[in-house]
Amino acid sequence: MIRKGTILGGCAALLLAAVLSGAALAGSEDVVVEDAWARASIGTSRPGAAYMTIRNTGEEALTLSGISTDLAMQPEVHLSATDARGVNSMAPAGEIEIAPGEAVALEPGGLHAMLMMLQRPMVEGETFDLTLIFSDGGEVRVEVPILGIAARGLND
Ligand SMILES: [Cu+2]
């Protein structure tokens, strides 16, 4: 599994701080992932993207700090935006806090799991594993089904 040094370092520092202060860690076991899906790719020259709803059913805020998958060399959570002139762009979303009882939607046109440097084509009908990494050091593995190349959502 590929993890960035900064994320690892951040986790270690956070864990240490939590242990030293005796604070309870917000549990990534409280994470429920719903409706994960991705679109088939044409080969591997363009990045892929995955979408899902990440729900925090716990009592404390959770922070999504990164993602990993062996499907892509450089997986990253991105945020798409359209400016006043109608120009689309996207950028790394950074850390994403999910309040207790709230959910964050990764969906076309907004937040998405960007899968850069695909290691193999994303083939319709197959699945791949994506791991959500939280700032408490917890990880949640998600099995993502790959839909057709023109899919706009799970039921569409
Ligand atoms: Cu992106």
UniProtKB/TrEMBL annotation:
Top-level taxon of origin: Bacteria
InterPro entries to which the protein is assigned, alphabetical: LpqE-like (IPR007410), Lxx211020-like (IPR058248), PCuAC_sf (IPR036182)
Gene3D superfamilies attached to this UniProt entry: PCu(A)C copper chaperone
Keyword Transferase belongs to the record: no
Record keywords: Signal
Record's signal peptide: 1-26
Keyword Ion transport: no
Alphabetized Pfam families for the sequence: PCuAC
Protein name: Copper chaperone PCu(A)C
